[in-house]
Structures are given as C-alpha cells and as structure tokens.
Automatic annotation (TrEMBL):
Residues covered by the M23ase beta-sheet core domain: 209-276
Keywords: Signal
KW Translocase (keyword) present: no
Lineage: Bacteria, Bacillati, Actinomycetota, Actinomycetes, Pseudonocardiales
PANTHER family in UniProt: MUREIN HYDROLASE ACTIVATOR ENVC (PTHR21666:SF270), PEPTIDASE-RELATED (PTHR21666)
InterPro entries: Cell_wall_metabolism_enzyme (IPR050570), Dup_hybrid_motif (IPR011055), M23ase_b-sheet_dom (IPR016047), Peptidoglycan-bd-like (IPR002477), PGBD-like_sf (IPR036365), PGBDSf (IPR036366)
Species of the source: Actinophytocola algeriensis
Superkingdom assignment: Bacteria
Stated name of the protein: Peptidoglycan binding protein
Keyword Signal attributed: yes
Secretion signal span: 1-26
All residue ranges annotated as the Peptidoglycan binding-like domain in the record: 38-91, 102-157
CDD domains: M23_peptidase (cd12797)
Single GO term (MF): metalloendopeptidase activity
Amino acid sequence: MRMSRLLSMLVAVLAATLLLAPQASALPAWPSVGQGASGPNVTTVQYLLRHHGHGISADGAFGSATRSAVVAFQSANGLTADGTVGSQTWPRLIVAVRQGSTGEAVRAAQTQLNRYGAGLAVDGQFGSGTDRAVRNFQSAHGLGVDGQVGPQTWQTLVGGGGGGNPSGYALPLDRSAASRGDYAGPHWNSTPAVDLIVSYVPAYAITATVADHFDSASCGIGLRLLRPDGSRFVYCHLSARSVADGASVSAGTRVGTTGDTGNSGAPHLHVEIRTSDGVARCPQPFLLAIYDGVAPPSLSSLPTSGCTS
Ligand SMILES: [Zn+2]
C-alpha cells in the first residue's frame, strides 16, 4: 500500500516534470552581464532593477551604480552577491508581463523585443502592438504563443542573439522613431548628412565605437563615435549625452537624447559619417542597409555628394 502510493507519486512527479519542461533544452543560456558591459541586455537589467525599486538610470552602461544595485538585489534574494547577472540572478530578476501591464518591466521587455526588430516605442505600456510583437516572437521561436512574457520567453529573448539588424550594427534611433524614407531623405543643404526629424528620443551607437564629446555653435551638444581607424559617426543637436567622454560603446548602446541644440530649426538628429581622412560621406546607403537588415557598405565606398537614395 505504502509502496504503491510512493510509486504512483513518483510517476506523477515524473510526468509533471516531463510536461512542464518539454522545451527546456531548446532555450538559450542566460547571458552573463556584469560591470563594463553595455547594450540592450544592460538596459534590460537596469529596467528590471528599477522595477524592483532600485533607482538607477537605464542608460545601457553597466557601471558601479548598476553593480551596487545588482549586489543589493542579490543579497535581498539570497543569491551569491557577486554583482554579475547570470543564470542564478536572471530568473529572479525577470517579471512576467502581458497585455495591460505597465512600467519598468514592460520597458525591459520592449527593449528586448526591439533587439529582434519589433520597432516598439519603449514606453512601458503593454498594448496591442507589444502583444503582437510577443506573439510573433513566440511563434518564430517555437514557444507557446500566449502573448505573455514569462520565464521561457524572457530567457529566449535575453539569451538569443537578436535579429532585424546585421550583427554589429544598430539604427541610431528606435525602429519606430524613423521610417525607411526618413533614412533615405536628402540633407537640407549640400553637406553629406541626414536629418532625422524626431522629438526628444533616445539615440544609440550605430556600431562599436569610442564616444568623443564635443560642442559647437552649429552642432550644439554633439557626439563623435570614433572607430579604431579614425573614421567616425557624428551626431548633432542632442539635448543630452548619456555616455562618458572616452567611453567604449557597442552597437545599440544608448548614447544620448535627441534635441534641438545648436543651429537647429526644430528637434532632430543630424547624422554624419566621416572616413579617416575627415571627408564627409553620405550616410543614407549605410543607414538603409542597417534598416533593411543587410551588411552595410564600406565607409569609403559611400558617395560624397548628392546624398539621397
Ligand atoms: Zn543636418
């Protein structure tokens, strides 16, 4: 009697284990995110820490304030307080969100969905657009399609490699902030550049670069993003920079907020590309390639005049 009860309990536990974890082996590993890291996974960690009551800024750069918040979160949750978000901390940090949810955890989910080209405004409002993006993502990744960002969907989002942009590149704005036509448009004068008409929205590094602060009467609050060979991306008219002078940033790291400083008629982001010889090149073909998810052309192949596409 006792034995058979024990056996049937064992069978039930086994069955439940099999039923609950059919996809466990297909999930990517949780990434390890620690001090010095940057990019959307860091922004995600920061939004989730904010959800849990830690008042840090979600700037995509894992500095000492983020590390302190992680250590505090780990201590409070009985985890090893090593300041790195890995396979033990992620499952405690994530928050299940679904249509109707609001706040920082929704921003975290939207940040992740945009890594896969969802093009959502990171507004913390889980509406029908976010719901659609979640369902598309779940369907594309063999997950149960329920529109809820729960543990398996979180792990697949955070652990996956992203998509929608060629690896190593990101658009300078959220995908929803500017259309393909905006990236193709001519500059208002003959300077090789593009003006992206947006209000006060996050601006991101196009690729791995070193941030170089500068200010000028025409550019206003400006930022050069330097590549090792001396070529650079230049942003103008920012309302604020959110990376330190000299900081290394990766593609998709938030570097500032667009604005209306300098010689600017209305809020917009002015983007220039200059090769190592200082020559300004048309950014349109380069940005359109990123928008279209194909490898961008070499900077030296970009035209120096007639910048439209
Ligand atoms: Zn301009």
